[in-house]
Specification:
The chain is an all-alpha fold. The chain has 10 helices and no strands. It is globular and about 70 Å long. It starts with 32 loop residues before the first helix and ends in a 5-residue tail after the last helix.
Amino acid sequence: MAAQIKPPTNPQLPAPAPVPPQEPEEEGKVMSFFEHLDELRDRIIRAAAAVLVGFIISLVFTDKVLVYISATYGERLALLNPTDSVVAFFRVALMLGAMLAMPVITYQLFMFIMPGLTRRERRWVFMALPGTTALFIVGVVFTWVYLIPLYIRFLSGFQQDVFQTVWTADSYITFVTTVLFWHGVAFETPVVFYVLARMGFVTARSMIGYWRHAIVIAAVLAAIITPTIDPITMSAIMSVLLTLYVASIVLVFFAVRLNRKRLAATPTGT
């Protein structure tokens, strides 16, 4: 009797490993006008609370910073009102508090301008905070070392044969603190553009295409933040701002490349 031949059976292949479901991005909700006002109020309160904490901390070393700032003038500052010394002291403390709170201020500004950020975009904002703080400090140091002496030399020597330079403590401290703070803010530009590029709002090509607008904006900002009226100093500030814009284009270029690599590595299906 012939042996029965069993039909060949197909070997069972191992089942493919299940693809883990990707965590959906958390989209921000669309807010109404009054909700935007409430959001603005909350962000301002949080930023002000951070400045208050920094202000309290800075009271420990404000007197030393005040002496250091006043030494640049070369002489003792004049007081015209009984409260000028107190006002100058707390003005310096407030500037130091704002510097210490700069990471919180920057974060609150980002979260108000773009409240619909996804979870990944919020993470980029957090990662950019150390960079913005570092550039702010670099801007303050650069301004103090190079620009403040240039400003003081020009202002104190302007029409010296006609005027006698006697600056009050309030006017001088206001001048120095304002210049240091806003110049430091201007130095944060590259990191801000980098974050915007990671979120897909800007590209290096678009920034290069708007180079004429960048020159005009740099000239306007230089006229605003430069305390003197001479064209040499304004041109120097304008050159610094344009250099920061070029640095921003470079960072945006790398940010766009990172975005493309991330999109290429993301699986298209589940």
